[in-house]
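User: I'm new to structure prediction. If I give you an amino acid sequence, what do you actually give back? Let's try with this one:
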Amino acid sequence: MSDIFSIFNTSASALLAQSVRLNTVASNLANANVATRTADDAYKPKEVLFQTVLDEADPDRAAMPVRVAQVVDSPAKAIPYYEPNHPLANEEGYIFRPAITVVEEMANMMSASRSYEANVEVMNTTRQLLQRTLQIGAAS
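Assistant: Good question. You get back a string of structure tokens that encode the predicted 3D arrangement of the chain. For your 140 residues, that looks like this:
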């Protein structure tokens, strides 16, 4: 029976991790076109780092929960754009925007969303199996 609950634990941890990933993608997309006067002031895109959690109760490591280890700033440098008429342009006529590729962020969002949906489906299937097992036990 503890194996069944480890499935719920693993899926629940994955749901939480993918939720953080979706929020991070949303933040990156919201700031993709924010211009600044200097490269240092530009928004730093965020990346989520996952880590598996070792479970001493599961020596076979059949179900390993995941957690968000860190949300880190991307090492990518801000991109300069020559726009001398922009109100934030520096003395040389440049503004800086974060190094965010909208297509890449959309792919990350789709991947996180699909992973989230898959883990919801795992939890629903496990719940249905538990209900059927209880029905079989009650019928005996």
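You can read the tokens as a compact description of the fold. Here is one thing that stands out. Residues 2-129 form one domain.
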